[in-house]
Write a structure and sequence with these properties.
By secondary structure, the protein is mostly helical. It has seven helices and no strands. Keywords: Cell inner membrane, Cell membrane, Membrane, Transmembrane, Transmembrane helix.
Protein backbone atom coordinates (compact mmCIF):
# COMPACT_ATOMS: atom_id res chain seq x y z
CA UNK A 1 0.00 0.00 0.00
CA UNK A 2 2.80 2.43 0.92
CA UNK A 3 4.55 1.78 -2.41
CA UNK A 4 1.36 2.44 -4.34
CA UNK A 5 0.87 5.68 -2.42
CA UNK A 6 4.40 6.80 -3.33
CA UNK A 7 3.66 6.34 -7.03
CA UNK A 8 0.03 7.47 -6.99
CA UNK A 9 0.69 11.11 -8.03
CA UNK A 10 2.82 9.82 -10.92
CA UNK A 11 0.13 7.36 -12.02
CA UNK A 12 -2.54 10.07 -11.88
CA UNK A 13 -0.22 12.44 -13.79
CA UNK A 14 0.15 9.83 -16.53
CA UNK A 15 -3.60 9.15 -16.79
CA UNK A 16 -4.58 12.82 -16.93
CA UNK A 17 -1.85 13.52 -19.50
CA UNK A 18 -3.14 10.75 -21.75
CA UNK A 19 -6.76 11.96 -21.54
CA UNK A 20 -6.28 15.75 -21.39
CA UNK A 21 -2.84 17.41 -21.65
CA UNK A 22 0.43 18.12 -19.83
CA UNK A 23 -0.87 21.24 -18.09
CA UNK A 24 -3.89 19.55 -16.53
CA UNK A 25 -1.69 16.59 -15.65
CA UNK A 26 0.76 18.92 -13.92
CA UNK A 27 -2.02 20.60 -11.95
CA UNK A 28 -3.41 17.24 -10.88
CA UNK A 29 0.13 16.12 -9.90
CA UNK A 30 0.38 19.08 -7.54
CA UNK A 31 -3.06 18.38 -6.02
CA UNK A 32 -2.23 14.66 -5.67
CA UNK A 33 1.02 15.60 -3.94
CA UNK A 34 -0.91 17.74 -1.42
CA UNK A 35 -3.25 14.80 -0.76
CA UNK A 36 -0.23 12.54 -0.36
CA UNK A 37 1.25 14.95 2.23
CA UNK A 38 -2.06 15.05 4.12
CA UNK A 39 -2.25 11.25 4.11
CA UNK A 40 1.28 10.95 5.53
CA UNK A 41 0.46 13.51 8.21
CA UNK A 42 -2.75 11.80 9.31
CA UNK A 43 -1.13 8.36 9.11
CA UNK A 44 1.97 9.09 11.20
CA UNK A 45 1.53 12.55 12.70
CA UNK A 46 4.40 14.04 10.72
CA UNK A 47 5.63 14.48 7.16
CA UNK A 48 9.12 13.29 6.23
CA UNK A 49 11.53 15.91 4.92
CA UNK A 50 11.84 14.11 1.59
CA UNK A 51 8.09 14.43 1.01
CA UNK A 52 8.28 18.18 1.67
CA UNK A 53 11.21 18.52 -0.74
CA UNK A 54 9.49 16.50 -3.48
CA UNK A 55 6.31 18.52 -3.01
CA UNK A 56 8.20 21.84 -3.13
CA UNK A 57 9.90 20.84 -6.37
CA UNK A 58 6.59 19.72 -7.88
CA UNK A 59 4.91 22.94 -6.75
CA UNK A 60 7.61 25.27 -8.06
CA UNK A 61 8.32 23.53 -11.38
CA UNK A 62 4.71 22.50 -11.87
CA UNK A 63 3.50 25.99 -11.06
CA UNK A 64 5.94 27.45 -13.58
CA UNK A 65 4.77 24.91 -16.17
CA UNK A 66 1.16 26.02 -15.74
CA UNK A 67 1.92 29.74 -15.36
CA UNK A 68 4.16 29.98 -18.43
CA UNK A 69 2.39 27.20 -20.38
CA UNK A 70 5.78 25.59 -20.97
CA UNK A 71 6.20 21.85 -20.30
CA UNK A 72 9.98 22.15 -20.03
CA UNK A 73 9.70 23.14 -16.36
CA UNK A 74 7.90 19.93 -15.35
CA UNK A 75 10.37 17.95 -17.45
CA UNK A 76 13.11 19.15 -15.09
CA UNK A 77 11.33 17.82 -11.98
CA UNK A 78 12.74 14.26 -12.16
CA UNK A 79 16.20 15.59 -13.01
CA UNK A 80 16.21 17.94 -10.02
CA UNK A 81 14.95 15.25 -7.61
CA UNK A 82 17.39 12.57 -8.77
CA UNK A 83 20.29 15.05 -8.78
CA UNK A 84 19.45 16.13 -5.22
CA UNK A 85 19.32 12.50 -4.08
CA UNK A 86 22.67 11.72 -5.75
CA UNK A 87 24.19 14.81 -4.19
CA UNK A 88 22.83 13.87 -0.75
CA UNK A 89 24.47 10.44 -1.00
CA UNK A 90 27.74 12.01 -2.12
CA UNK A 91 27.88 14.77 0.51
CA UNK A 92 26.63 12.63 3.38
CA UNK A 93 29.23 9.95 2.63
CA UNK A 94 32.31 11.99 1.82
CA UNK A 95 31.72 15.15 3.88
CA UNK A 96 29.74 13.91 6.90
CA UNK A 97 31.10 10.32 6.79
CA UNK A 98 27.58 8.83 6.91
CA UNK A 99 26.28 6.22 4.53
CA UNK A 100 22.60 7.00 3.90
CA UNK A 101 22.05 3.75 2.02
CA UNK A 102 23.31 1.86 5.06
CA UNK A 103 21.03 3.82 7.40
CA UNK A 104 18.04 3.24 5.13
CA UNK A 105 18.69 -0.47 4.75
CA UNK A 106 19.27 -0.99 8.48
CA UNK A 107 16.01 0.82 9.26
CA UNK A 108 14.11 -1.13 6.60
CA UNK A 109 15.54 -4.51 7.63
CA UNK A 110 14.86 -3.80 11.29
CA UNK A 111 11.28 -2.83 10.50
CA UNK A 112 10.70 -5.97 8.42
CA UNK A 113 12.32 -8.14 11.09
CA UNK A 114 10.14 -6.65 13.83
CA UNK A 115 6.98 -7.22 11.81
CA UNK A 116 7.88 -10.84 11.14
CA UNK A 117 9.20 -11.75 14.60
CA UNK A 118 7.42 -9.29 16.87
CA UNK A 119 9.76 -8.11 19.60
CA UNK A 120 11.88 -11.30 19.40
CA UNK A 121 14.51 -9.92 17.02
CA UNK A 122 17.45 -11.76 18.56
CA UNK A 123 19.23 -12.44 15.27
CA UNK A 124 21.21 -9.36 14.28
CA UNK A 125 21.54 -8.59 10.61
CA UNK A 126 25.23 -8.21 9.86
CA UNK A 127 26.17 -6.92 6.43
CA UNK A 128 29.83 -6.08 5.76
CA UNK A 129 30.64 -2.38 5.56
CA UNK A 130 32.17 -2.89 2.11
CA UNK A 131 28.74 -3.98 0.80
CA UNK A 132 27.14 -0.81 2.16
CA UNK A 133 29.88 1.24 0.52
CA UNK A 134 29.33 -0.50 -2.83
CA UNK A 135 25.58 0.05 -2.60
CA UNK A 136 26.05 3.72 -1.72
CA UNK A 137 28.25 4.23 -4.78
CA UNK A 138 25.85 2.21 -6.97
CA UNK A 139 22.86 4.34 -5.94
CA UNK A 140 24.83 7.57 -6.22
CA UNK A 141 25.96 6.79 -9.77
CA UNK A 142 22.54 5.46 -10.76
CA UNK A 143 20.72 8.56 -9.48
CA UNK A 144 23.16 10.90 -11.24
CA UNK A 145 22.81 8.86 -14.46
CA UNK A 146 19.00 8.89 -14.28
CA UNK A 147 19.07 12.64 -13.63
CA UNK A 148 21.00 13.17 -16.86
CA UNK A 149 19.03 10.52 -18.77
CA UNK A 150 15.76 12.31 -17.98
CA UNK A 151 17.07 15.49 -19.62
CA UNK A 152 18.36 13.55 -22.61
CA UNK A 153 14.95 11.97 -23.20
CA UNK A 154 13.13 15.26 -22.54
CA UNK A 155 15.12 17.21 -25.12
CA UNK A 156 15.67 14.53 -27.77
CA UNK A 157 12.28 12.84 -27.96
CA UNK A 158 8.63 13.81 -28.12
CA UNK A 159 6.58 14.82 -25.09
CA UNK A 160 4.68 11.51 -25.31
CA UNK A 161 7.94 9.57 -25.22
CA UNK A 162 9.18 11.59 -22.25
CA UNK A 163 5.95 11.02 -20.26
CA UNK A 164 6.13 7.27 -20.97
CA UNK A 165 9.80 7.26 -19.94
CA UNK A 166 9.05 9.25 -16.77
CA UNK A 167 6.36 6.82 -15.69
CA UNK A 168 7.55 3.44 -16.95
CA UNK A 169 11.26 3.97 -17.60
CA UNK A 170 12.10 5.61 -14.29
CA UNK A 171 9.89 3.18 -12.38
CA UNK A 172 11.56 0.26 -14.18
CA UNK A 173 15.06 1.56 -13.49
CA UNK A 174 14.17 2.02 -9.82
CA UNK A 175 12.74 -1.49 -9.62
CA UNK A 176 15.91 -3.01 -11.17
CA UNK A 177 18.10 -1.02 -8.74
CA UNK A 178 16.06 -2.26 -5.78
CA UNK A 179 16.32 -5.82 -7.11
CA UNK A 180 20.11 -5.48 -7.46
CA UNK A 181 20.30 -4.15 -3.90
CA UNK A 182 18.29 -7.10 -2.58
CA UNK A 183 20.46 -9.56 -4.53
CA UNK A 184 23.61 -7.95 -3.09
CA UNK A 185 22.48 -8.26 0.57
CA UNK A 186 20.41 -11.44 0.30
CA UNK A 187 23.09 -13.87 1.51
CA UNK A 188 23.60 -11.81 4.69
CA UNK A 189 19.96 -11.94 5.75
CA UNK A 190 18.94 -14.37 8.49
CA UNK A 191 16.85 -17.32 7.35
CA UNK A 192 13.64 -15.88 8.82
CA UNK A 193 14.01 -12.66 6.81
CA UNK A 194 14.92 -14.20 3.49
Amino acid sequence: MATLLEYLPLIIFFAVYKFVDIYWATGVLIVASVIQLAYHYFQSGHIATRHWIFFAIALVLGGMTILFQDEQFIMWKATVIYAILALLLLVSRYVFKKNLVEKSLIGLLKSVSEKEQGDNTDTPIVIPQSIYEQLNVMWMVLLAFVSALNLYVAYNFSLDTWVNFKVFGLMGITFVAILLTIMRIYKYLPEDNS
